[in-house]
DNA sequence: TCAAAAGTGTTATCCTTACACCCATGT
DNA sequence: ACATGGGTGTAAGGATAACACTTTTGA
């Protein structure tokens, strides 16, 4: 599996995808088993090297995903190109003397799919397996207390007062102690803070209080994807990439809640969706939702031409 | 200068920077002369290949920029990794038979700097040299009429009615004919539309009605940078990366107007900045602005801890 | 009859937008 | 005096957030 050094140091370019879906009340990500890690970490995102046969980056990504998982992708968007730090599992100096020669980049993508049929070795996992503290639908998760306690300890252990204040500020800003409260979009900032504090398994933490680990920097990519999606649903109708062709308003709301990790105010959510012109009624109703039968809706494509930023500005309410 | 093919097809990775500043009433971008293009196109962004000696992508970028322009960078943010299309100047098939072998990626960055001292061969150019139609501070620019006329002609020339409607929709959406009006953030979408319609020099247009050309895909990168910055000033206090330590509210407004290409309502702008807590007064005033001496202000760093998204939501007004 | 979910109506509040106006300086 | 830019106040309109309440099904 290890190749001879190609000349001095031609960079290796990889492609990776955070493929997201929503089934029932759970947001999902498509994972594949990863072998050959130290300590046998087993989970990762679909990924593979950029090959000469790939006409474009995105086409190469689609090819890899189909090969590894059988899933064909719809909506695809480039996220970020990683390559700065933490690319090699062992960190600096793991590979011996000449470590600084070979660059290993990875171009990460976000993909949204409707159907969630797992194929081959792949599996759909809940997002919150990897980021348990990101799910606040049942209120502030209890594990957060232990986590922030350790973060505070890390801040206290700073080498000087200035750094201690800075760490404290970051904790407040990302985890919500500050006046601003919880901001569901700051997924990456929270993960990076936990990483720096040594609280994630990838950075040497003994347990998985901060979530299940992934191969190399895949969890960083996933965090980037979740943050981007949580932001984007507010000004682009991307949620509908995850919904079936017809759906009830209640189902739509539960998907949005699953993605954003917070509960929304029912009445206002319905009014918002309606008055934004994001959906239109169909003739059908369904009785499968529990109480009174609900009208089935569909996405209104025309909204793309009408509004500059059609989306679901979520407030922060928590009513039922 | 041309190297022997490294093995089969190791990808080439380049780094490029759109370095932005604001001087007087003009938004600026730092350019370097580019030789060796067909027809001698002369302008490009600072750029260079990723080298083994570069510890990270961003450090490599900073090194290249310093080497080429003498400019040291402050705020830096990754924009996008290009490599899909239009990377090779001549398009498909220009390099002969084995063209599909070697990938050429380019990781583009956005940088914001305060001082604008041109050094070495580099030069500060107005953004609107490359995108004249993006400057609406003096009202709708007259060149836009000719441009949209050609776009309409392109839409009419579509091979089938469906494609024609789609092209018409895109024109309306990006250039504002639709109900939504002009959206100053859609810089990239407008450039790509003009590119597809063959109206930019890079795509074979005979004149520069759609702006001055740049080397390879550098104008696409610049368009990405401008759109990103125009969006970001609304929810992050990035404008202050472009301002001197102290400034008047009028100067701040003129910089924001220069960046966004639209005029703002004076009184509301001042109120907005004040009530957001983005700035604080200093003791000093300056009489250099024309009429009544103005109070000098400075950026309030603490706002980062107080507000979830401190920025300058710009409306669309045009008052003085 | 009750639980559960769908669906409607109303009100208080805040933010955006616009308009009108005064202040201090240089020419 | 008047042009120029700095600076303040206030009112109308729309969007948001919170409230209470009715309707229709299945168990």
UniProtKB/TrEMBL annotation, chains A, B:
Outline the extent of the NrtR DNA-binding winged helix domain: 239-299
Return the protein name.
Answer: NrtR DNA-binding winged helix domain-containing protein
The source organism is Methylobacterium frigidaeris
- Taxonomic classification, please? Bacteria, Pseudomonadati, Pseudomonadota, Alphaproteobacteria, Hyphomicrobiales
